[in-house]
Design brief:
There is one protein chain. By secondary structure, the protein is of the alpha+beta class. It is about 25% helix and about 40% strand. A hairpin with a 5-residue loop joins strand 5 (about 100-115) and strand 6.
Length: about 150
């Protein structure tokens, strides 16, 4: 899967997110329209698996977590950045979301859950914070960050 094709897939999705508030209603909409049974989910999941296998996604590793910023924020992506992590029964670094965060949880092994959420979408509103945790298996998580904004706790 070329990086340009993945960009096109994300661009189609983020075009539908423009102007929407990051809240529970958006999470519900994403799971109804683009949840695990949808073509969008299946395509993004396969693209992420391919990108990791090809080495252009999750190219860094620290503390047992593979990660990487796939795209910096850009106008074609409605100002979102795109990051993908590969986690296996572990917790990542605590951080806050000044502008919110949209996550796509894609289990790879077991009944993997992200912050106790199963496969699908999780939306954190502006000003929220958490310690991202994968339990019960291994998963890829795609992060959409408005303006690429994230603040790690020191």
């Amino acid at each position: 899967m070329p990086r340009s094709e993945f960009h096109r897939q994300i661009r189609e999705l983020t075009g539908q997110l423009a102007g929407r508030e990051l809240n529970q209603a958006l999470q519900d909409w994403l799971n109804a329209e683009h949840g695990p049974a949808s073509e969008t989910y299946q395509q993004l999941r396969q693209a992420c698996r391919d990108g990791v296998a090809e080495g252009w996604m999750c190219e860094h590793e620290a503390g047992g977590i593979r990660y990487g910023r796939v795209f910096k924020p850009d106008a074609e992506l409605q100002g979102f950045s795109v990051d993908v992590v590969d986690m296996d029964n572990c917790a990542g670094p605590h951080h806050s979301h000044p502008s919110g965060e949209i996550d796509l949880v894609m289990p790879l092994e077991g009944d993997a859950r992200f912050d106790d959420h199963p496969a699908g979408w999780v939306v954190y509103p502006a000003g929220s914070a958490h310690t991202p945790t994968i339990s019960n298996g291994r998963a890829l998580v795609l992060y959409l960050l408005p303006d690429g904004s994230i603040e790690f706790t020191r």
